[in-house]
Design brief:
There is one protein chain. The chain is an all-alpha fold. The chain has a single domain, classed as Orthogonal Bundle (MetI-like fold). The protein has ten helices and no strands. The radius of gyration is 20 Å and the shape is elongated. The N and C termini lie far apart (52 Å).
Length: 223
Amino acid sequence: MANFNEVFDRWGGLIWESTLATFQMVTISLLISIIIGLPLGILLVITRPNKSFDNKYLYRTLNIFINVIRSIPFIILLFALLPFTRLVVGTSMGVRGVIVPLVVYTAPYIARLMESALLEVDKGVLEAYEAMGIKTKDIIWHVMVREARPSIILGITIAVIGLIGATAMAGLVGAGGLGDVAYRFGHLRYEPEVMYVTIIILVIIIQVIQTIGNILASRAKKD
């Protein structure tokens, strides 16, 4: 069995490019998912029964939609969305081809995490601001979101880690990234050393992300 130095000599360039592709997929998908998921999470909170914009029809529709998407394993969702992905971005291959299914998979997940984080905000604090006549939109952005920042940060950290796992599965459709390298070279070409290296890199990346998320959440609690 070849040692890791030999693996990097042979595959170092490919592994580096695949690591960058993984970061690209995660970053783009995460930003779009937050843009979609945060407002959805807020809607889930404010349209609940006895909330500011109580609307049982909108709440139930959003709730069912998010539950349906979250109940579908990513690998199945990936293949089911291939025609839609081609329609939207013109391809189902490479980094661009996997962004659509990653966003569809992650945005509802973030919405649910945001809902959970916002519901943790002390009701007494919200009632105090409402009693002062503060507008609902200001309460949402300047009170609810601010008070829920530690939980939101931890939620996004969890979402990022889930995204990294999803990008690994996306390698099955030639999306690129570390998952693609592990599958094509580590598995199909019987190069187990390549798979071990990609696993080590993924573990390191996830450990770093989780550590950063924990630090940022701790700082947010002190602010």
